[in-house]
Amino acid sequence: MTKPLVKSRQRLIIVFTLMFLGMVLLCFKVGWVQIVKGDEYSKKASLQQTKDIPIHAKRGTIYDRNNTKLAISAPCYSVWVRPAKIGDNNEGQKKKLEIEETASKLAEILGSTKDDIKKKITQEKPLIKIAKYQDKKVAEKIRKTGFTGVEIAEDVKRYYPIKAFASHLLGSVADDSNGLSGIEKEYNNYLSGTEGRWIKDTAADGKSLPYGSEQYYAPEDGVSLELTIDEVMQHYVEKAIEKAYKKTSAKKVECLMMDPKTGDILAMATYPDFDPNDAKTPADKTEQSKILKMTSEQKAKYWSEMWRNPMVSDTYEPGSTFKLITLGAALEEGVCTPKSHYICAGTVNVEGSIIKCWRSKQPHGIQTVKEATGNSCNPVFVQLALKLGKKKYYNYLENFGLTETTGIDYPGETNSILLSENNLPNSDLARMGFGQSLNVTPIQLLTAISSYANDGKLMEPHIVKAFLDENGKPVKDIRPQVIRRVVSKETAAEVLDIMKYACEEGGAKIMHIDGYDIGGKTGTAQKTINGKISKQTYSSVVAVAPTEDPKFTLLCIVDSPKGVQYGSATAGPAAKDIMQNVLRYLNVKQKQVTDTGAYN
What we know:
Elements: H1 3-36, H2 38-49, E1 50-55, E2 62-63, E3 69-81, H3 92-110, H4 114-121, E4 128-134, H5 136-145, E5 150-159, H6 167-170, H7 182-186, H8 188-191, E6 196-201, E7 214-217, E8 224-227, H9 231-248, E9 252-258, E10 265-271, H10 285-292, H11 296-307, H12 310-313, H13 323-332, E11 341-344, E12 347-350, E13 353-356, E14 365-368, H14 369-375, H15 378-399, E15 417-418, H16 426-432, E16 438-439, H17 442-450, E17 457-459, E18 464-468, E19 474-477, E20 482-485, H18 489-504, E21 519-529, E22 532-545, E23 552-559, H19 567-570, H20 572-585
Parallel strand pairs: 2-8
Antiparallel strand pairs: 1-6, 2-3, 3-4, 3-5, 6-7, 8-18, 9-10, 9-23, 11-14, 12-13, 15-16, 17-20, 18-19, 21-22, 22-23
Helix pairs in contact: 3-4, 3-5, 9-20, 13-15, 13-18, 14-18, 15-16
């Protein structure tokens, strides 16, 4: 055999050997992939091919007590882009031009900038959401462009039809449709429902595979709520406190209305407010500029404060409105009667502590308890508190529900701040008698005073009246809950009569309304800031209307008014406006004036 033939033969052997080894390695690799790593790669392929699309549940509607919609779930559209699909039928310069055209047109339709849209659609991600909460017109415009890689998906957005209305009460929701504050947060588990899923096998371009599986799990819509709030009364309240806010240049103004016989909250408002449709943007333009310069932490703190409902979550020193609590306890215990006489000398010395009457330079002199309440005389209520003594006084604070939260169905309720009964100096007990040296929440105080308008029975306040199904039919009613009897029917009637006197002859005259028996009490308390008494005040009024058959109770607080600070001058006019409008709205008939000037 010649040398060339031997060499050829050797080469063939080498080639076949290499081919054989390659085949062995290939078989080993195939075996490794299919047998050893088969499950792992199968799962990866399944994950790449499986598209799990969340189907949002429709959030429950929130209605007022008269079926007016306060919060609804409105249909909307989201715009998605598959970057890899844009211009996939073109290459090079043509592909770049299609990307530019897509970015330009989308920016025009969505009211954005071309650079912003282009940055999003050129990311190396399989799917990107570039816009949310778009209406049907915008969605149709985008569909008509016919751009490849651009998709429109149906979505649901929380919408508040009356905009900046009952905002602190209702609260708002986050982008994921979960409650951030207010009723939206308190009842989130009921309102949100259960999200559905659409699971299907897809190719890289998002299209369904011909032999792929598909599973659809329908969402379960949330439960709707009927509130105790009356939309008309809420409007009257909001207009009145906005007017008071502007007139007094206050930090804020708050108002709370309740049905004393059921505990239903009829209206609850704080001004300034916000639009829950855009809950992170303050209503005031100056504040809008401020928030743009804040850090993320500062913004979070600012939003928390803006959404905070002071009627439930903040305490304050009530001042003379709290005299009604001392009055009821003293009458119930027989410490006094409405006709009992006391002397006001302008000041009173309690264990070396000098407590002044607001008319210390012109003392009230001899007066009945009824007159002392109308005159808002501190020395008389000092004497009543001291006669009751610490033990009985604190027992009544507990009975009136002022030592614990009310249990209202609202998030973030705060408890009162009271000095410990043990080793309490008489000077502090004396001040508590006229509403100082203690802090309560507005909801605690109005709930307590409302017991007088309910024959002495304390009710649990609540905001939700019923749970409703998808057709708006009640599936569960929230029944009024009596907590306990606080005072007798007779004592309650005496307190209402004295409150009526305060509106007719005393310091609460500003709230008197011709033809109606209105009961009320004013209060002005200096605020303690950083442990020191300041010149700022909580100026407030509390009222019952009408006293012979109470339809509602009301508490209005003006926080830090400028200029005149008395509750009668700051909160009184707002309370009167509200009561006049609400009494007309409820068709409560006015009494007729007789020839003698009295009412029938």
